[in-house]
Amino acid sequence: MIASISTLGPYGRAAFGLAMATLGMVSVIGYVVYLRAIWGNRELQKRTIFLMSLCVSDLLMIFGHMAWTVAATFHQSWPFGDLGCQVTAFFAMGPALVSIANVTLISIDTYYRECKKEYCGVNYGIYLAAIWITGLAAGFLPILGMGSYGFESPLQVGCLLDFHEAKRGIVTYIALLTVVWFIYPMFKLVKYYNMLQKETGDGFLLRVVPTQMLCTWTPYAVCSVLFLVAGLTNVPQVPLAIISNLCAKISIASNPYIYIAGDPKLRIACQQMLFGKKMTFNNDVTIKEKST
Q1: Disulfide check for 163: which of 48, 134, 227, 271 has CB 3.0–4.6 Å away?
Q2: Exposed, middle or buried by CB within 10 Å (0-12, 13-18, 19+), for 282?
């Protein structure tokens, strides 16, 4: 049985909503800085094509899921009905899977751009189409019967996978997500950033990106397994739901800052936009600053 939203009390609900809203706003600010920095700069637009795709998928999750969750924290029960639950759950799952695929492609593109320039840009349009089609299609699978969408926690402030009826479909779905959108991306991230470090000596992305993915997505994976194996009534639903919810959103909030910091040309463009310093860089990413 789903516990009432009043489990947390009004202050708990407000704190949860504030945390969710803060993470969303932090992400939006980061992407606004990124978009303003590349505005009118064809080189940076081409250079950051997968970051642009990540921007779109993250913003879809923010405005299609997180915003409605924040709004629901100020009501005593879910105010948007079953249709609203299904729609917001799709915008949580589909864009999240696309975001994970985008992060993976960014790692491959970064390695190609620095070490294998002959491969950089080859078939990128096909890759983008593939990750969006597969990610959004996977987001539809629970609607089509592989598991189902429902309240993602006893808080009743958001919808995602429904663990209250552990059907075979949801077990298959969780296994699919674990292999295709967690284990495989982690392997690719470590592989390409490790090769990048060996060939360039730059280990920033190797240290940060796999760690971010482990810390932000593992809690939801662990909670999913616990809910399926132990049952909802045998685990502390409320704290697990809060932790897994917010950790996943930390990924969305931190994405723009990680990839701005990890790309010297993009970082300089953002600094120029924010602080008004005119800067140029050569093809070897050697930074030269000119006084205004």
Answers
A1: 227
A2: exposed
